[in-house]
Amino acid sequence: MFELRLNRPSSVQFSGAMASTAKDAQDLFSAMRSAYSKTPTRLKIIDVYVIYGLITALIQVVYMAMVGTFPFNAFLSGVLSCIGTSVLGVCLRIQVNPENKEFKDLSPERAFADFVLCNLVLHLVIMNFLG
Amino acid sequence: MAEGGPLGLLVFATIFVLIGVLAFSIRLFSVIKYESIIHEFDPYFNYRVTQYLTKAGIYEFWNWFDDRTWYPLGRVIGGTVYPGLTLTAGTMWWVAQAINIPLSVETVCVFTAPVFSAFASWATFLLTKEVKGTGAGLTAAVLLAMVPSYISRSVAGSYDNEAVAIFALVLTFYLYVKTLNTGSLFYATLNSLAYFYMTCSWGGYTFIINLIPIHVLLCLVTGRYSSRLYIAFAPLVVLGTLLAALVPVVGFNAVMTSEHFAAFLVFVILHVVALERYIRRTLDEATYRMAFTVVVAIGTTGAVVLVGILIALVAASPTKGWSGRSLSLLDPTYASKYIPIIASVSEHQPPTWPSYFMDINILAFLAPAGIIACFRPLTDSSTFIILYMITSVYFSGVMVRLMLVLAPAACIVGGIALSAAFETLTRSIKYAPTAPPALLLPAEKEEASSSGATPGSSAATSSKEKAKEASTGKARETGKEKPAKRKQRKEKEATDKLIAGKEAPEEKLALLPVEASAVGIVLLIMLTSFYVVHCVWAAAEAYSAPSIVLTSRTEDGVHVFDDFREAYAWLNHNTHEDDKVASWWDYGYQTTAMANRTVIVDNNTWNNTHIATVGMAMSSPEKAAWDIYRSLDVKYVFVVFGGLVGYPSDDINKFLWMVRIGGGVFPHIKEPDYLRDGQYRIDSQATQTMLNSLMYKLSYYRFAEATMDGKGYDRVRRTEIGKKQFRLTHFEEVFTSHHWMVRIYKLKEQKNKVRGKIKRKSKASKSKASSTTKRSASKGRSQK
C-alpha cells in the first residue's frame, strides 16, 4: 500500500502514509460495521456459527502444532468437521439470504433440511473416522 | 419429456429401458461364444477376494492378511485393494441369496459388468440431459451402451474395477453438474457420496478430484462465479476428502499426496473470491476500492508465505509428492526411465492412431462438432463437458488403458453433435415455409411470412409432417430394419414433439432446404448404422475373448486351447497345499485363484525387488536359479511356452522384461549379455548367456524331440532353436499341458548336493592324507 502513494514528498511520505492508512483502516472498519449491521438477524446468527467453527478449527491446529500429529486421523476428522460445518453454514446462508435472486423459489425450510442432511452425513463420516 | 404428452413419455420410457437392455445384451457375446468364466488376469484376483468376502464375512475381509501371495512377504488385502467392486458384487450375491435366488458367486461376478454398464448408460443420459436436453441425453446413452472402448473392459466375465468405476464416474459428474445447475445442497451431499463410491472402486478417482477443481478455476477465471458454484464445490472438497480418507487404500494420502492438492488450492481460491464478492456487495464503491488495496497487500504477502512453505514441503520429497503412476501420466517418459515395471504393462503403452478409430469409431470425428455445439450456448455445465473431453483426450494419448475414460466424454459430445444435427435437419423439414427459398434469408420477412401464414400454418405443418413421414418412409425402405434405426426415428419424433412446444422462437433461426435436410437425415442414419455394425462386430470378434481359453479356426472347425486351466487343475490336484509355485508375475492371480497354491509374485506388482528376484532367477543359469528358488522355498516353477502352437504371449517373448527388471535391481544381470546385434535371439546365433538361462532351458527342454522333424522349429520366433539336446540338472519336468503351453517343473531335492559334498569331503580327506604323507616325505627329504 505504500507503493501506491507515489505523489507525495518523500520525507513526510512515510509518516503521512502511515497516518492516512491508519485513518483509511478506521474508515474501512466503520464502513464495514455499518454495512454489516444492516443484515438480517438470522443471517448474523449463521455468521456467528460459521466463525465459531473456524475458530475451533484454528484452536485445533494450534494444539496439533504443540503436541504433534499422532493420531493423525483424529486431528483430520476434528479439523475437517469444523471446516465442514462452517462451509455448510455458509451454504445455508447463501440459500437463505433474501438478497440472492437465484434461490428465491427455495423455501428456507427446505434449505435448512438440506443443511441438516448434509451435516448428518458429515458427522457420520467424522464419527467413523475419529477412531 | 413432458412436452410430448403421454405418448412422448411412453416413447421416452421405452427407449430408456431398451438402452439398458442393449447395453446388457451386447456384452454377452463372450458367454455365448465361450462360457461363463472369468477372463484375463486381474478379474481372477477380484473373484478370489469376492469368494473370501462371501464366505468369511465383511469383518474378516476388511482385516484380511493374505499369506498365499508374495511369499514370504504376504499382502494386506484389506488395506491395498479397492473394495468397491467386491463389495458391490458381494451385496448383489447376498441380496440374491436373501430372496432365495441361488446364484453362485461366479455368476454374480461374471454378470456384474453388463449390469453396471446398463446403469452407466442411464447415468450418461442423466448427465447429458443436464447439459443439453433429453434428445442429446438419449443419443449419448445409446452411444455409450455400444462404444467398443467401454465394451472391451466390461464384457460378461471381465470382472475388473472399471466395470463399476465408469458408472460411478459418470454418476459423480452428473450429480456435480446437477448441483451446479440447481444449487441444491441435497445434490451436493449425493455428489459427495457418489465420489465416495468412486474412490472405493478405482484408482482413477484422482481424475475427478483434479478435473472438478480445474473446472471451478476455469469458471472463476472466466467470471462465472456464482453461489451455486460455491455450493457445488466447497462441500465436495471437505466431505470428499473425509470420505476418501475412509477408504483404507487411500487413507492419509487424501491429504498428503500431490494428487489432491489441486482441490485444496482451488478451495482456498474459491473462498477468497467468495469473500471478495461479499465485501463488494456490502460496501459502496469507494470504500470497496480502498479495502481492495488493503486486502491485496496483506493477502499477497500471506499467500507468498503459504505457497513458499508448500513448495518447500513438496520439493523435499523426491517425486514431488506424486505417486509413480500419476507421474507417468504427467510425464510419459517417466516410467520407461525409472520404473520399468510400469513401462512393461501392455495396457500402459501409448495407443496407436488406428486404435482410436477402433475404440470410439464415428465419435472420433463427431467429438469436435460436439465441442463446438457446447459453445452455443456456453453454460457452466457445457464448459465442464468441454474440459472433461479435452483432458480425457490427453490422458488417453498417454496410456491405452485410459481410452476407457475418454469413452463417456466422447459419447456425450458425440451425442450432443448428433442430436444437434438431427434437430437442425428435422426442424428444417418441419418448418419449411411454403414461400420460395429467397424469402428465407431476411429474418423480418420470415417472421412476417410465418405470422401471416398462421391461419394456414396448421395445414402447412401437417403437410410438412406428411413430407417428413415420406422421408422417414424412404429411410425405412433404403435401410435395414435395425432396432437402432427404429430408435433413432423414435428419438427424432421425441425431439420433434419437443420442438412443437416452442414453435415461435424456432422460426427466427435459419432453415436448410427441405431436400438437403432429407438427404442429410438419411446420411446420418447410415452413419449411425455403420457405428452399430462396427460396435457389434467389435463386441463379438475383438473383445469377447476370455484369454484364458484360446480358440483357433481350422478346417475341422474350432479348436480350443484350454491349457491354462488344465495346468492349474493339475497343480491343484497333484501338489501339496503348502507348496510354493514360482512363475512370472502375469500368472500370479490365476494361480492363486484356480490352482489355490502360494505364489511368489503376482499381478499386483507392488514389490519391485521381489519381482526382480524372480526375473534374475529366470535369467540365470540353472544352478544359480535353483539356489534363488531354494532360498524362497519354491517347490514348483512353471513357464508359459507358445512355440509349439504359435501362441505369441509366452514367457520367451516377455523375457526382455525379466532381464530389464532383474537388471534394474541386480547389476550382474546385464542386458547386452543376452542380445545379439541388439536383438533377443534363441536360435544358433543366440549368446551363451541366453542359451544357458533358466527360461530358455525350461521352455525348450525336449522340444526338439517333440517336433515332428526333430529340428525344433519355434513357431512364434520363426526359427529353429539354438541348443536342441540338453539335460536339466536341477529341475525335473513334472507336467506339460496338451499343447505344451504350460510347462511345470519341480526343483530337484537337495540330497544330490549333499551326496556330492560327502564325496568331496572324502576326496578331500583322502587328498589331505596324501598331502600329509607327501609333506612328511618331503620333510623327510628336506630334513635329509
- The CATH first-level class of the domain at 561-747 in chain B comes to Alpha Beta
In CATH terms, what is the fold-level topology of the domain at 561-747 in chain B? Answer: Rossmann fold
Number of helices of chain B: 37
Helical fraction of chain B equals: 55-70%
What share of residues are in beta strands of chain A?
Answer: under 5%
Indicate the proportion of strand residues of chain B: 5-15%
The succession of helices and strands of chain A, N to C, reads HHHH
Task: Supply Rg of chain B.
Answer: 33 Å
Q: Which structural class do the helices and strands of chain A define?
A: mainly alpha
Most extensive chain-chain interface: A-B, 42 and 36 residues
Compute the number of strand runs of chain A. Answer: 0
- How would you state the average pLDDT of chain A, rounded? 83
Q: Compute the gyration radius of chain A: what is it?
A: 21 Å
**Second rung of CATH, namely the architecture of the domain at 561-747 in chain B:** 3-Layer(aba) Sandwich
Unreliable residue runs of chain A: 1-6
Major sheet of chain B: size, sense and barrel closure? 5 strands, mixed
Q: Approximately how much helix is present in the residues of chain A?
A: over 70%
Distance between the amino and carboxyl termini of chain B: 122 Å
Biased composition (Basic residues) (chain B): 753-766
Region (Disordered) (chain B): 446-499, 752-784
EC number (chain B): 2.4.99.18
Domain STT3/PglB/AglB core (chain B): 578-637
